[in-house]
From TrEMBL:
<keyword id="KW-0963">Cytoplasm</keyword>
<keyword id="KW-0396">Initiation factor</keyword>
<keyword id="KW-0175">Coiled coil</keyword>
<comment type="function">
    <text>Component of the eukaryotic translation initiation factor 3 (eIF-3) complex, which is involved in protein synthesis of a specialized repertoire of mRNAs and, together with other initiation factors, stimulates binding of mRNA and methionyl-tRNAi to the 40S ribosome. The eIF-3 complex specifically targets and initiates translation of a subset of mRNAs involved in cell proliferation.</text>
</comment>
<dbReference type="InterPro" id="IPR008905">
    <property type="entry name" value="EIF3C_N_dom"/>
</dbReference>
<dbReference type="GO" id="GO:0031369">
    <property type="term" value="F:translation initiation factor binding"/>
</dbReference>
<comment type="similarity">
    <text>Belongs to the eIF-3 subunit C family.</text>
</comment>
<dbReference type="Pfam" id="PF05470">
    <property type="entry name" value="eIF-3c_N"/>
</dbReference>
<dbReference type="Pfam" id="PF01399">
    <property type="entry name" value="PCI"/>
</dbReference>
<dbReference type="GO" id="GO:0003743">
    <property type="term" value="F:translation initiation factor activity"/>
</dbReference>
<protein>
    <recommendedName>
        <fullName>Eukaryotic translation initiation factor 3 subunit C</fullName>
    </recommendedName>
</protein>
<dbReference type="GO" id="GO:0005852">
    <property type="term" value="C:eukaryotic translation initiation factor 3 complex"/>
</dbReference>
<dbReference type="InterPro" id="IPR036390">
    <property type="entry name" value="WH_DNA-bd_sf"/>
</dbReference>
<feature type="coiled-coil region">
    <location>
        <begin position="156"/>
        <end position="207"/>
    </location>
</feature>
<feature type="compositionally biased region" description="Basic and acidic residues">
    <location>
        <begin position="62"/>
        <end position="71"/>
    </location>
</feature>
<dbReference type="GO" id="GO:0016282">
    <property type="term" value="C:eukaryotic 43S preinitiation complex"/>
</dbReference>
<dbReference type="InterPro" id="IPR000717">
    <property type="entry name" value="PCI_dom"/>
</dbReference>
């Protein structure tokens, strides 16, 4: 009986051991092992379990459990975090992305010793590069909640710092994603990923394109294919491309390639025209969202194709492109008619192609660093673009286009010329003459812009008329005709309505004002220069007003849409007005006016200011505890102002002429000579105003020798001061001296006299007010008299 129970106990224990072993062992391992179990002669029961334990120990001895190093543990931890981060980034969960990024940085700090020894892991560089690409191209959702927006902004700031820190590694990764310095495991992992990507791309190509290419078809969108062999009908292919254009899943690059092959396979002139008429706007559709402008190669291809289209239209005058109405004729019928030489109309707008090409050229210059050779190389494309503009204008005139189209294209031509000197305009016109043999209507180069602007004054489009006037004013001021430019801008009365114009027109208005001010300065009219430039230079937003940049503002974060809009308004670098030159011109003009004014109104200087911005700069400079030698342009002019106020005109001249920016002006030597003369005259005025209260007479010869002026010039300056009632004196021609009068009414020689007169004026005002109050109470004033009896009765009734 005991043996029976013993046997049953052993069998049940065997079953329990088998179940427990199945529960704790991997199921896949048991399924993969197809070998039958080897039966041994050992007894059942606990011996079977011992046998299995021995097998496990044998298997452990054959493949011991893998022990990870500290490096692998840390890198595995970093991989897990990066994977979670990238998954959250895929679903735009920026709160999770921000939190996981913080964890990633903390884990990176823990692995600092390993990273210093082994180097930064490649998958980490790949991760931050991926995050950077996603955030650059991310368009903010208006419905995003506040926490996600806050997390997104915080993530941008953190990533910006990290990108700057890992700049070298990122550059190396982007140049060669397979990092030679990476570990063997990382290289294998990357190779495996690339193999999978390659296999996926090959399979996609097979499913989309291979079966079509065998029959002469090319896929341009999901589920659609377009034939490109010579056996198919070209017009049907064009209709299919036109139907697919603009749809969501259309491959734009494939469309361009298809149309290029169709252009080569076109047999007649009409076919080439209609293919180019569709190919050119398709190229404009292919704009990368990252840069927002066409690539240089694509732009140049579009330029050559527009030229080829104009060549075809010139050779085949029976084919015309325009906004014509649809008719019942098919494309095949039009092709036959065009081949016979009969008139054929094609729907389109070739002038819009030239406009779009000009806009894309402007955008490309805005997106290129102006301090690189790439910008100079890109700027060379302006000459063929200008030649194409002239050709488009001539073709529009020959085909009797509408006047509005002619005015638009002529305005484009003027906008390429108005800010350039005559030498560059002459080179542009010479290029047009060489390429197309178009003349300049027997006009001189300096009269070209004025002639075109005069034609544009007759247009019906208000914006073109205003911009033409401003371009004309700018060009006139560039040629140093200050009075004509001033009269044109004043007679137009644009200052009253310019705020209602669009922003590019307002920018052009500001540029014209600045050029008028620079013209006045070059002509030696410093008061006029200060008056014109004060509105632009005194507000502290010169960059924004001239569309030459945006000043950095603290605690102000702009959205990507605002940054993109601000960038689209900026002018290309070669159109900029030198801001350092502009600041120097404004400050020097203000110095020549304000320093004598301060000396004249020394007792009441705060109430009678000419330039508040210059006065603030001067007061700030004087409040400095330590003032060293001048370092920048502003320091030079402040030092010159203080020297001029003390009567040292030579030091003031040296400080002003030490500014190197004057060399940027044409005829710089004559401008420096004019500046020196102005400093001498204004220093003489300052000296007379400062020391007149302390002298009874001044010798003209002595003043002339002090400021190195002729006696006639000195006499002229003093006479003007006397006539303008700025100096109470008279000139004795016999003794050649200036006799000063300190007893003249209204002239205060000391601070006490000024305060006394000021106090007397206040008392007189108070007495007048008191008398009015008294008259109102006594009724002596006509205004406050009581009404008569009849009036009282009438009022009561």
């Amino acid at each position: 009986m005991s043996r029976f129970f013993a046997a049953s106990d052993s069998e049940s224990s065997d079953d329990e051991f088998d179940k427990s072993s199945d529960a704790f062992t991997d199921q896949s391992d048991s399924e993969m092992s197809d070998e039958p179990e080897v039966e041994d002669d050992q007894p059942s029961g606990i011996s079977k379990w011992l046998k299995k334990t021995e097998d496990e120990s044998d298997s452990d001895s054959e493949g011991p459990k893998q022990i990870k190093s500290a490096k692998e543990k840390r890198f595995d931890e970093l991989r897990d975090i990066t994977q979670t981060l990238l998954n959250a980034l895929e679903f735009d969960d920026f709160v999770t992305v921000n939190n996981e990024y913080d964890k990633l940085q903390k884990s990176l700090v823990k692995a600092d010793a390993i990273i210093k020894r082994e180097g930064i892991p490649r998958f980490y560089i790949r991760t931050i590069n991926t995050i950077d690409d996603v955030l650059k191209n991310y368009e903010k959702d208006p419905s995003m909640n506040a926490s996600s927006t806050k997390a997104l902004n915080a993530m941008k700031q953190k990533l910006k710092k990290e990108l700057k820190l890992r700049e070298v590694e990122l550059e190396r990764f982007r140049e060669n994603p397979v990092d030679e310095a990476a570990s063997e495991f990382e290289a294998q992992e990357l190779a495996q990923e690339r193999e999978e990507e390659r296999a996926a791309m090959e399979s996609a190509k097979k499913t989309k394109k291979v079966e079509f290419e065998e029959d002469g078809f090319t896929a341009v969108s999901k589920g659609k294919a377009i034939p490109t062999t010579a056996d198919v009908n070209l017009f049907e292919v064009l209709n299919q491309v036109l139907d697919a254009r603009g749809k969501k899943n259309t491959d734009k690059l494939a469309q361009i390639e298809t149309l290029v092959r169709l252009k080569k396979s076109a047999k007649t002139q009409y076919q080439r025209v209609i293919v180019l008429n569709l190919l050119i706007p398709t190229r404009f559709d292919y704009v990368p969202p990252v840069t927002g402008c066409m690539s240089t190669d694509m732009w140049q291809s579009a330029l050559e194709e527009i030229k080829a289209l104009y060549d075809l239209l010139d050779k085949n005058p029976n084919i015309k492109i325009g906004p014509f109405d649809d008719n019942e004729e098919t494309e095949q019928a039009k092709d036959k008619l065009a081949t016979k030489g009969e008139a054929v109309k094609v729907r389109g707008n070739i002038a819009s192609f030239v406009d779009r090409l000009d806009d894309e050229f402007l955008k490309s210059l805005q997106n290129i660093d102006p301090h690189t050779t790439e910008y100079i190389d890109r700027l060379r494309d302006e000459t063929p673009l200008y030649c194409l503009l002239v050709r488009a204008l001539k073709y529009a005139e020959s085909t009797n286009e509408s006047q509005d189209i002619l005015d638009l294209m002529l305005m484009r031509r003027v906008e390429h010329l108005y800010y350039k000197p005559d030498s560059i305009i002459e080179a542009f016109e010479a290029a047009v003459q060489t390429e197309y043999s178009f003349g300049t209507e027997n006009l001189k180069i300096d009269q070209l812009v004025a002639h075109y602007c005069t034609l544009l004054y007759k247009t019906n489009i208000d914006r073109i008329r205003v911009r033409a006037l401003l371009c004309h004013v700018y060009h006139v001021a560039l040629h140093d005709d200050y009075h004509k430019a001033r009269d044109m801008i004043l007679m137009s009365r644009l200052q009253e309505t310019i705020t209602q114009s669009d922003i590019p027109t307002q920018t052009l208005y500001n540029r014209s004002l600045v050029q008028i001010g620079l013209c006045a300065f070059r002509k030696g009219l410093y008061k006029e220069a200060h008056t014109v430039l004060q509105e632009i230079c005194s507000v502290g937003k010169t960059k924004e007003l001239l569309a030459q940049g945006v000043s950095s503002q603290k605690f102000v974060e702009k959205t990507p849409e605002q940054e993109k809009l601000d960038k689209s308004r900026q002018l290309p670098f070669h159109m900029h007005v030198n801001l350092e030159l502009l600041e120097c011109v404004y400050l020097v003009s203000a110095m020549l006016l304000e320093i004598p004014n301060m000396a004249l109104n020394s007792h009441d200087s705060r109430r009678k200011m000419i330039s508040k911005s210059f006065r603030r700069m001067l007061e700030y400079n004087e409040r400095q505890v330590f003032i060293g030698p001048p370092e920048n342009n502003r320091d030079h002019i402040m030092a010159a102002a203080k020297s001029m106020a003390s009567g040292n005109w030579q030091a003031a001249r040296d400080f002003v002429l030490a500014v190197k920016v004057w060399d940027l002006l044409p005829n710089s030597e004559s401008i420096k000579k004019s500046l020196t003369d102005a400093i001498q005259v204004e220093s003489l005025k300052t000296y007379i105003f400062t020391y007149a209260p302390f002298y009874e007479s001044l010798d003209i010869a002595t003043l002339s020798s002090m400021f190195r002026l002729d006696e006639q010039k000195t006499t002229s300056v003093v006479s003007k001061l006397i006539v303008n009632e700025q100096l109470q004196a008279h000139i004795d021609p016999k003794s050649k001296s200036i006799h000063l009068s300190r007893s003249a009414p209204g002239i205060c020689s000391t601070r006490l006299e000024y305060l006394s007169s000021h106090f007397a004026e206040k008392i007189s005002i108070l007495v007048d007010a008191n008398e009015k109050v008294l008259e109102s109470k006594t009724g002596t004033d006509e205004k406050f008299k009581k009404p008569n009896r009849k009036q009282e009765v009438r009022f009561r009734g």
